[in-house]
Design brief:
This protein is α+β, with helices and mostly antiparallel strands. Helices cover about 30% and strands about 25% of the residues. Helix 8 packs across helix 10 and helix 11 runs parallel beside helix 12. It is globular, with a radius of gyration of 30 Å.
């Protein structure tokens, strides 16, 4: 008998078997199914651990006992374990059932449910309805297992970080505003009129301060808050990451931790093949050239090649004066014209391309179809050589300004991989994107801005900041990528106050701005700061990948919808005038 015996249950619904026949037991759980077969009523009783069948002999006594039973009602059952006449080999408890002597309703359920939580396909139910009744959706076995998986992954991460000598330290939630790539969530102060806290976009400054404080290696599973537009692979408003930082560490030291921790977790919770370290290192500019994106899916074998020089003297107007990219796809079978037309429509409508040129290379190395008439024999040979194109290949061309051509080619590569089913199956492919540019040009504001993390160390240090063109400066910044998703981001940190001032100066900040906005960090850097580096794998995305889900909402207990609303708790919501008065705020919005 289970050692956790109490007045509600002696066993869970997933542990009794043929060896328990003859025992008197108590079970508690939810009714998944009720079947009245005249002389007997059968109930499938469910809890987190499994399902046990309950059998009730229909008579005057049991009629009253069963009168108010409905699916999803929570009940306690007392009775004897008996052997089932018709066994169910699909479940652990399928050889036995409980002959009920007494049933007690613990929690009544309404007769009409908004949806059936045990359904095998909840995707047929409108998502906003499922999120409004998330407590019901979480009873679904598939979703429920995702949340349990998340819990186990968190335990494994903590155990591994402890094993590697990291110290778990919590950092504040009420913090200061910091420019880290997104809008802040602001919290007004009651005690300090007109002043605001900001929820941290990441524990960036705090973890660096911990390094200044003499802690050797820090980590936490940290909540982060960013006011960003939602998307399938990004939770709106808040997300969690395994945040870690190390003193006296280089970029390679961080990579070793990532290569130790991440494959360990993936291998434990999946039967897919998992890349082991060392992971492939790909410089950012190479990633943009070969894959058109800084988070390439290495399961996709397609490579983007540059053929701009091949067409530098072309008279073909679509390519004249443009950066030209080509993707060669070996055709295992002849692709019909409608495939090429459909890809062109996708490129134009979904990627913003002006068009998608194409042609075919047949078994005789002859070009035909599409733009083949605009390509000379000499150009054809150069293209075949550059793109390493095989016979019976399709060639897709993208022509535009450099960055636009890269981006569109990247989108075309991804779509071709999906439509032609080219992605390697049942495998997690990791790579590290390195050598990110320190700065980028902000078209909207017409100025130089940080490309990645503003607290990163520029390669070449102060000399690079003083002598190089800002857009040519690289940083010790890196991302860990898995199957086309950014899994982690990190950097070697800038720990020199003068170098910090210069780095921010190039991005348009004055020394006073740095001292005011990052006062604690700037001040701490005056008192013997060790070199330090770190990274932060995203927990939500890690669980999503291991669970083989395509949407983060499937692995978060209480997610927000596509419009960043919590439909269960009805947040955000209006507050009373008294609450606004307490924090010294008057609203100025259209009524």
């Amino acid at each position: 008998m289970n050692s956790n015996m109490n007045e509600y249950r002696t066993n869970t619904c997933g542990e009794l078997n043929i060896k328990d026949v003859g025992k008197k037991v108590r079970l508690a759980g939810w009714i998944s199914k009720i079947r009245n077969l005249g002389g007997m009523t059968f109930i499938d009783l469910r809890d987190e651990f499994g399902i046990t069948q309950i059998v009730i002999q229909n008579n005057e006594k049991t009629e009253k006992m069963c009168k108010d039973l409905t699916t999803e009602t929570c009940i306690k059952v007392e009775g004897n374990v008996i052997e089932r006449a018709s066994k169910n080999t699909k479940i652990v408890t399928g050889e036995i059932e409980i002959s009920a002597d007494n049933i007690e309703i613990l929690g009544k359920c309404k007769n009409i449910l908004p949806f059936e939580p045990t359904s095998d396909n909840l995707s047929n139910v409108r998502e906003d309805l499922r999120l409004e009744y998330r407590f019901l959706e979480l009873r679904n076995e598939h979703i429920h297992k995702n949340i349990l998986l998340r819990s186990n992954i968190m335990k494994t991460l903590r155990n591994k970080m402890d094993e590697l000598g990291f110290t778990e330290i919590q950092t504040p939630i009420l913090a200061n505003s910091s420019p880290e790539g997104a809008r802040d969530f602001l919290v007004p102060s009651r005690l300090h009129p007109g002043e605001f806290y900001a929820l941290p976009q990441a524990p960036q400054q705090f973890k660096q301060l911990l390094m200044v404080s003499g802690f050797n290696k820090y980590y936490q599973i940290a909540p982060c808050f960013r006011d960003e537009d939602p998307r399938a692979d990004r939770a709106p408003g808040e997300f969690y990451q395994l945040d870690f930082e190390m003193s006296f560490a280089t970029q390679e030291d961080v990579f070793k931790v990532l290569e130790e921790v991440v494959p360990n977790v993936f291998s434990k919770f999946t039967n897919w093949k998992v890349d082991k370290g060392p992971f492939i290192r790909i410089p950012y500019r190479e990633a943009m050239e070969k894959y058109g994106i800084d988070k390439p899916d290495l399961r996709n074998p397609l490579i983007i090649n540059d053929v701009t020089k091949v067409f530098e003297n072309t008279e073909f107007n679509a390519f004249k004066g443009k950066t030209v990219k080509v993707i060669a796809v070996e055709m295992t079978e002849e692709l019909p014209r409608k495939f090429f037309d459909s890809m062109s429509e996708f490129a134009v409508n979904e990627l913003g391309a002006k068009g998608l040129a194409w042609c075919k290379l047949d078994n005789e190395n002859t070009l035909n179809g599409g733009i083949s008439k605009f390509i000379s024999d000499t150009q054809k040979e150069e293209i075949i050589n550059i793109a390493d194109a095989e016979k019976n290949s399709a060639l897709f061309f993208i022509a535009d300004e450099l960055e636009t051509a890269q981006k569109i080619a990247g989108g075309v590569r991804i779509e071709l991989g999906k439509r032609l089913d080219l992605l390697e199956k049942d495998v997690y492919r990791f790579c590290l994107i390195v050598d990110f540019p320190m700065y980028e040009y902000n078209e909207d504001e017409g100025k130089i801005d940080f490309n990645h993390n503003p607290f990163s160390m520029p390669q070449g240090g102060l000399e690079a900041l003083n002598t190089m063109e800002p857009l040519d400066i690289l940083a010790y910044q890196y991302d860990l990528v898995c199957n086309g998703y950014e899994m982690a981001s990190g950097a070697v940190r800038n720990h020199d106050p003068e170098l910090m001032v210069k780095a921010f100066e190039i991005a348009g900040y004055k020394r006073e701005d740095v001292e005011e906005r990052f006062g604690a960090l700037f001040n701490a850097f005056q008192y013997g700061t060790p070199p330090h580096a770190g990274a932060a794998p995203g927990l939500d995305r890690m669980v999503m990948l291991i669970a083989n889900e395509e949407n983060l909402r499937q692995v978060i207990a209480f997610p927000k919808n596509k419009k960043a609303r919590d439909l269960l708790m009805r947040a955000p919501s209006k507050v009373s005038p008294e609450q606004l008065k307490d924090v010294h705020i008057k609203l100025d919005i259209d009524k």
